[in-house]
Amino acid sequence: MRLYALIILLFSSITSISQNCNYTLSGTVVDLHDSSVLLGATLIVAGTEQAVQTDLEGKFTLVGLCENTYSIQVSHPYCLTEGYTIKVIGNTTKIFRLEHHLEELNEVILKGKANRNKTNTLFENKVSKEELERFSSGSLGDALNSLSGVSSLNTGNTVVKPMINGLHSSRVIIVNNGVRMEDQEWGAEHAPNVDVNAAGNLTLIKGAGALQYGGDAVGGVIVAEASKVTVKDSLYGKSILSAASNGRGSSVTSQLTKSYQNGWYGTAQGTVKRFGDFEAPDYVLSNTGIFERNASLRIGLNRFDYGMEAYYSLFKNDIGILRASHLGGAQDQVRAINSDRPLIIRDFTYNITEPNQDVIHHLARLRVFKRFVGLGKISLQYDYQRNNRLEFDIRRGDDADKASLDLRLDTHTLMLDLDGVLNHKSNLKSGMMARYQNNFANPNTGVRRLIPDFDKYDLGVYGIVDYRLDKNLILEVGARFDYTFMDVFKFYRTSFWESRGYDEQFTNIVVKELDNQILTNPQLNYYNASATAGGTYAFDDEYKLFFNYSLASRAPNPSELFSEGLHHSASRIELGDLRFRHEVSNKLALTLQRENSTFGFSINPYINSISDFIVIEPTEIQQTVRGSFQVWEYRQINARLLGVDVDASYTFVTNFRFDHQFSLVKGYDRNRKEALINMPSVNTKNGLVYQNTEYHNLRLALESQYVFSQNEFPDNNFEVFVPETQTFEVVDVSTPPDAYHLLNFSSNIDFNIGKKSKLTLGLTIDNLMNTSYRNYLNRLRYYADDLGRNLLLNFKYKY
Amino acid sequence: MKKVKILSTVVFAGLLFTACSNEDNSTPEPVNEEEVITTLTVTLAPEGGGTTITLQTQDLDGDGPNVPVVSVSGNLEAGAVYNGIILVLNETETPAENITEEVEDEDDEHQFFYTIGGGLDVNTVYGNFDGDGNPLGTEFTLTAGAVSTGALTFTLRHEPKKPNDGTLADAGGETDLAATFTVTVG
Predict the structure, then answer these.
(1) What does the pLDDT read at residue A635?
(2) Are A408 and A443 in contact, with CB atoms under 8 Å apart?
């Protein structure tokens, strides 16, 4: 397939005659993702046809070269073959980075390459292992936040929910080690249950183009993968210890891998993370601690033509929610919003009390694959997940220690995928999926179920074909169809059932009527079609244009369908709608990229038009004996999102680099003709990086992050009666916080210890100036400032 | 051929899957809200006899769409002194749960506040106290002054600052209950 282009590349290279031809080109070939060395990679010099193989340490030496420009083809059995143009000046060294994933070819061509940049890994839509390690004590969301176009919807600073181009929750698929996470991702205050330390690299695909993962990724797909294990006899590992001043906590993570020449391997990994109350510049954020414990085990066999892998991971997280955010009705909200300090500030503690969340996520996966000559690689995977979420509120009497929410979600998935070659110009990816899911809401909470009991069945089938038209243009088309059936048992409050008119529309689903509740059995069917079409055009070696259209359809999630009652953590009444149709998105995205070692950039404008977009919006004020509450109803509207993400990097002097990121997104509600709520504000990051590979790989970076104030937002303010003053006061839940500017410093240095071990020391200071700020996308912004200065020490030992 | 074989295996496995998961036909049990407050009844009994005045707000569907039904049984008598008793109920359960008892059990974590507004000439004094001697307020004394009309608001706060200066602003905590009645002395 690609060989064609490479052959042309090889023959078109000029090998001129030169005077001195005694120079060498030496270096190593490494995995692009985790920089592990690749042995047995073949390098061929065009013109002379000199060929060498890398040794056990991934090293090679090409001799007898002249001072000239050479075309070199680098290939490896597990990698994409790549062509490079190298200028030999004297004895030259070079590190070649190969894409070490044959099976992920398609999305790499279409998306990943959009930001694969020779200048620097920072511009990629990938978070490399080195960068991930800097987020060792943070969360998956924190790590993703470093990419342009990614923001997060936060609840405090420990519940970090990734947002891609303004979209989040059920619109973002998270794939963890090949398994689509089913962890009640619909809740705005539910963070993904993924240990950032278990991931070898993160890939971000903006939009629904990667159909193999699902057809409902209206926002995008986040793929977290473990590092690949090389096929050789080896025992290696790493440990990272991080200690942070803010939260006075630390995290420890360790990973050990044993591999054999015959293809067998095993990896064990574990993380413990514990922090106490975090601190804003002026006060303690009481009850914001976190205690996270994770472990994972992986055993597999990797041969070129067949293999298997078994994987199990356990994720357990206990997260405190800011005490001052737990409120009664609207009158409490007025007090909390009008006060510039949280209403409850206590002394620092490691203890986590109510309100808090306690989540356990089990994930088990078994996968086998075999390559068939003439057909391709076929893999079969079964996975099982169990997510148990407990949420504790401040309660009275006998219920004081009881969870208010106790949900157990079990998911079984079976997938069969084919990664095949049609001919030398095109490839086919195809597959099918069957999934069964069961949700059980424990009735012993003494709180009506937020999410009802349900059984859900999904069947999906997809196909994606890519075609290399000529050396400049690659085209890709794909389609997917999903069928979803939900069998639900839901108790409705009789008053709500009647006020909605359900009593006339849905008489046939009533199972039984109780005093003030009605048990119903809704059975819902959704048929979702999704598709993608796009291409990549290479103008020359440097400039590339990517264009992609994607159609995504998403069935409404249980919270959008069935919410009905007071949501304590938001201090509002939330109502879903049983009648919702699926949501359909049409997204068009362009990326212009320049790959250049001095000045590289990518510009990515997009438009996403979504019909029947499900949003939650305030509709009225409801009086209860507890006081008045704002009612937020899910509605379906037509929405449009427009935006652009820009990355640039400029190496102006040796070892000094300037990095730039800029993201803008505008969301518009076409029904109400106003801005969409909770859209990320315009933000830009600019950084100066000094990196010296000659001196212990020393890296010093200073980053400035400027977040503009969101000036486009819907006005959802309302008034509430305050008895003390006998007046109505406005509850300002709409006005976004002011713009802010943060300075962050990070540094690290490597020391080799012995032959095989390496110690990396890192010092990071976030919010260097200890600036007080609030972020529009933090749900707790009404009550408290965001984090103050944080000094983070990082020790990484690789062995 | 192989493709067909494998595909059919998976389809079969998929069917097996869905077939074996339909194991229980039992319907889930209902959950009665244990903490919902549906009803607040304030009984004002005049010292030395006379007509007892009852203020009530009742919202039987809790935070459902129906609004509370508010009633005031009559006017207060100018100059009279009333013994007030507050009864808080959860009537979604049968028999109704008496939440006043829970509040009295956790007296150090609760306090009622009486807010008088709009020219209403009455005056309140706490009638019961927690273990530390700070006001609780499920019992109180109300003295009606001159002829007037205005708003009388009862607020129950959970985990207020104790002791406090008697105002809602100083007490903080969370509002468990807030009910306003239009009361007339005359």
Answers:
(1) 93
(2) no
